[in-house]
Amino acid sequence: MTRTTSVTFERHPSGYRHWKLTTDGDVAWLELDVDPDGGLVPGYELKLNSYDLGVDIELYDATQRLRFEHPEVRVVIVTSAKDNVFCAGANIRMLASSSHEWKVNFCKFTNETRNAMEDAAAHSGQVYVAAVNGTCAGGGYEIALACEKILLVDDNSSTVALPEVPLLGVLPGTGGLTRVVDKRGVRRDLADVFATRPDGVKGRTAVDWRLVDELVPRQGFREAVLARAKEFARTSERLDGEGVELKPLKHRYVDIARTATEATITVKGPEDDDGWLLDVTRELDDAILRLRTNEPELGTWVLRTEGDPAKVLDHERAVFDAKDCLSNEIVHYFKRTLKRLDVTSRSLIALVEPGSCYAGLLLELALAADRQYILDGPPIDDEDSEERAAITLSEANFGRFPMGNGLTRLESRFFGDPDHVTRLAEVRGKALSPAEVNELGLVTDAPDDLDWEDEIRIALEGRASLSPDALTGMEANHRFVGPETLESKIFGRLAAWQNWIFTRPNASGPEGALRRYGTGQKAVFDRKRV
Amino acid sequence: MPTKIDYDAKIPNNIDLSGDRRLQRALEGWQPKFLDWWGEMGPTLRTQGVYLRTAVSVGRDGWAHFDHVNVPDYRWGIFLAEPDPDRVIGFGEHKGEPAWQQVPGEYRADLQRLIVIQGDTEPASVEQQKLLGLTAPSLYDLRNLFQVNVEEGRHLWAMVYLLHAYFGREGRDEAEGLLLRNSGSPDAPRILGAFNEETADWLAFYMFTYFTDRDGKYQLGTLKESGFDPLSRTCEFMLKEEAHHMFVGTTGVDRVVTRSAELIREHDTFDIAGYGGIPLDVIQRYLNFHYTVSLDLFGGETSTNAANYYTAGLKGRWQEPRRKDDHKLTDAAGSLSRPKADGTWETEEHAAILLLNLDLREEYRADCQTGVNRWNKILDEAGVDFRFVLPHPGFNREVGINSGHHVTPDGTVVDERTWLAGKRKWLPTPEDLTFVRSLMHPVYERGKIASWVAPPRQGINGKPFDYEYVYLS
């Protein structure tokens, strides 16, 4: 597949092609109505409410707007505007015709969006309810699984299904397998039966197996769903407060510069602007997504910051202290954006230089990186300057922004040495010098101004010469130490297996299941188990 | 291997049901649920006995027995065509392998789905025809209605037998589900759209048995080719019974056309509504509706499901053994006409295996045309200057590449306004339906018939038209 234009991620409900978002008091309806001709890339038709990246980008936009623009919304009903089909999942022709990295990137983004729906329920009191009003297969059921409640129409024919294994030779990779057992507590033998039968499970059996929560009669379906939603809304713990409109991005706080092999992302700290954290988070999120999707060969991302550390900490404190709906949303959005960085398959190198502002929440960017270098000396272009690089820890680094494995980035960094984290907590608020941060293990190295340029060049060139596949595997392993969670399993185990399966001939070879799907020909499998 | 009929059993059968206690118990468990369904959803009109044909054997001669039967006591049974121990699979990637006597695990879900969908259509027709007995034009027609109904019921039994015998607990659940869905029900409608339409009058019934049951004939014809032998043998025998439904439809429309032609000649006008006949243009509009709704039953013109079923050996083509090709279709191509937004048609090339629904639909279309020719011959012989036309396959379609386009009966792609303006000319209007319904008065007297339809040329099983086919009191 060739792509001539790059993918953008900014959307607005007025321009949605595939979703209808309506709110009515404390309930929002998010209705999937895929335009079959509205594929992001030519070459496939989005039949039966099946989706591609473009459909999911709109879903992502909708989940963001619901959190920021609609503080009144406590329950989001996800349903289909089409008769007899909820969603057929990811479009198979799109998958079959996509390059490996496109497929993987697509899966990653869809997973992040599903996780964000669950995050809304867990941290914003905005509960998602799937109103499954027809056939619901594969990624369609994975959308439902991301919701807290699944209501299935009781018409004696609608089913939920995960047919990836039997039909396509791949996995329900948007968390499907994991959520069935880990989130919904489906027994593993029943999960095995469920995920190997292409026709799925309907009605009472789906309830008995815990694949759905409730059945709702076909007649008066919407009214019944709404009534249940109203009940869920009453128990929601959504904070009060004003919403804020997500206006088009201005690109004031995040710059991207490129070479042949790397991208440098420069994040700027606040001046006297109240809305800085939301704006910078949105821009950073957008930058990560665009680079990930459109520039797969830029294998190394250099992370930089510029600004006044004190202002970062002031801003941070104001947001943490506000304790209203909006500040809560901003904190969780920054958390999700950091997580997006954590699971990004790029080498992340943070540079801490004079004039940078790695303080508090922005320090998390450096801690998310695979390596950190601090310049121990004056700025490279002004050797007479008194200015020196520094790092400042704050409350933000001790639990506000957990990773997918449930640990803070400091706990992950010093896994097996919890006392060290305790000692670090004692120097919160202090601007730490290059020698101190080196001593405290907060950076990989602290070259002086004579060595700096060479050291950084050698580090980046060395990185660029290594196998990208091996690096991806190595980085993902190093980043996620310690315990597993539903989230780390999805991005670790499930995604790793899916990546492998996607490159295997049984799925992607000329006679593979994914390629043969829809041709009427049966896949030919290499029967050896490896 | 001779298949003995056990006609004394609670469930008549030629599958040695008494030798399979588990299956017998399962079916005997389903039987009362079926009878409850029949009582609730079956014919509204109560009778004391109907002169019915009951299948008693599967042999070439004398497979049916005729007698007056109290309808709820009809012996719904299970009959499979004679087995051929040497039968091999005739198409797809298993071509040449012995036919399966058990469900292959790999295809379990697909086979179950095919059988459930086929099974779902059978009771649906009974439900759609529930009220027709109240307005039958003659005892002969009333008898035919009941005959169709009990045989649809038996075809349901045939599919239920397969579900019970070969698909375990899930099959039994699906068999029960066939009784839980109901035609037109807002809560649990039948799976296919055409089976949720109303059959409101007898002209609609004749059209339904001509066009919609004919779809059933073609679907059964493809399942008869199945590598799953019990399905194949079941469908082969069902086709034998299905032929009668076609007969009811063909001769039913014949008789309406004959009567209309008589009235046109007698009164020298096409406007015969006032004389108790159905005008020819109304018949044409009914034809247009029932034909196009039935075309939708063939599914999308390109279908990966149909292709997969074919490759797997589950569902073949119409008269597969007579086709002169490799019966695998891995390299063959075919073409498909697609309406374009600018009002023209374009031809697309596709792998032949993706066009199997279209292939079947074309066979069906040619068959439907023979009926139209037959009705035109009646008009010709009566000297009436009017000809029925089978509309273009793009007309009035909800399924496939034509859905979403506005195509006239002659195949012109037009805009929505033009289509809406022509709709009253092409499809039955509310006034048409009201008018036809106004003619629907029951005629229950021996030898008498309603004004809008001619009597049949022959009775049933050698009996005269004025035979007492139905005991009403």
Automatic annotation (TrEMBL), chain B:
Q: What class of enzyme is it?
A: oxidoreductase
Q: Which organism is it from?
A: Amycolatopsis japonica
Basic and acidic residues composition bias: which ranges? Answer: 321-330
Entry keyword set: Oxidoreductase
Question: Can you list the GO cellular component terms from the UniProt entry?
Answer: cytosol
GO biological process entries = phenylacetate catabolic process
Molecular function terms, GO-annotated: oxidoreductase activity
Asked if the keyword Oxidoreductase belongs to this entry, the reply reads yes
**Which stretch is the leader sequence?**
none
What is the protein name stated in its UniProt record? Benzoyl-CoA oxygenase component B
* InterPro entries assigned to the protein according to its UniProt record, in alphabetical order: Aromatic_CoA_ox/epox, Benzoyl_CoA_Oase_BoxB, Ferritin-like_SF, RNR-like
Q: Which residues does the annotated region (Disordered) include?
A: 321-341
Which EC number(s) does the record attach to this protein? 1.14.12.21
